[in-house]
Amino acid sequence: MAEGQSGAKTPADFLKSIKGKAVIVKLNSGVDYRGVLACLDGYMNIAMEQTEEYVNGQLKNKYGDCFIRGNNVLYISTVRQA
Amino acid sequence: MIAPKKQNLHGNPSQILPSELIDRCVGSKVWVVLRGDKEIEGTLRGFDVFVNMVLEDVTEYEITPEGRKVNHLDQILLNGNNIAVLVPGGKPEDS
């Protein structure tokens, strides 16, 4: 489907632009994962590094490497860094 | 018997495809209602065939029994899977 989105930032563009950046991934369950995005694909499958798991806003776990299957992802967010 | 006239989608200017409507929202504020007591408002930057959306300056509302939880985010890629409703122009009682 061709969409007339000239100058728009499509999901594919966004995915390309955030590789290697700090991100927050929220799952459908409400759990947050904060870390550095190692790689990802069109299914929103994600590999992250230095990952921190937040449940109800509280840090519960840390993982050096983690994989998130894309079907669980609600959103991927960039982190505004000072 | 007379066969019904074929509707010409392009002949009537009042007929807009859903994807065209979303395309017209690119660059403006939208209010997205998700399945399961969640709402998201932000500026639409782009979308794809699954209506996954890139949003900027995002406010996330979570309706819980204890009240409304609000969360601000810079730029997000929202999975289209859970989207129920998309309203152009943003949240109505935006204050």
UniProtKB/TrEMBL annotation, chain A:
Gene3D superfamilies: 2.30.30.100. One of its GO terms (molecular function) is RNA binding. InterPro entries: Lsm6/sSmF (IPR016487), LSM_dom_sf (IPR010920), Sm (IPR047575), Sm_dom_euk/arc (IPR001163). Coiled coil: none annotated. The keyword Cytoplasm applies. Residues 10-82 form the Sm domain. It is found in: Cytoplasm; Nucleus. GO terms for cellular component: Lsm2-8 complex; nucleolus; P-body; sno(s)RNA-containing ribonucleoprotein complex; spliceosomal complex; U4/U6 x U5 tri-snRNP complex; U6 snRNP. It comes from the Eukaryota. Keywords: Cytoplasm, mRNA processing, mRNA splicing, Nucleus, Ribonucleoprotein, RNA-binding, rRNA processing, Spliceosome, tRNA processing. One of its GO terms (biological process) is tRNA processing. Pfam families: LSM. Belongs to the snRNP Sm proteins family. SmF/LSm6 subfamily. This is Sm domain-containing protein. It comes from Chlorella vulgaris.
Automatic annotation (TrEMBL), chain B:
GO terms for biological process: mRNA splicing, via spliceosome. It comes from the Eukaryota. It is found in: Nucleus. One of its GO terms (cellular component) is U4/U6 x U5 tri-snRNP complex. InterPro entries: LSm5, LSM_dom_sf, Sm, Sm_dom_euk/arc. Residues 17-92 form the Sm domain. Keywords: Acetylation, mRNA processing, mRNA splicing, Nucleus, Ribonucleoprotein, RNA-binding, Spliceosome. Pfam families: LSM (PF01423). Its main location: nucleus. GO terms for molecular function: RNA binding. Plays a role in U6 snRNP assembly and function. Binds to the 3' end of U6 snRNA. Belongs to the snRNP Sm proteins family. LSm subunits form a heteromer with a doughnut shape. This is U6 snRNA-associated Sm-like protein LSm5. The lineage of its organism: Eukaryota, Viridiplantae, Chlorophyta, core chlorophytes, Trebouxiophyceae. The gene is LSM5.
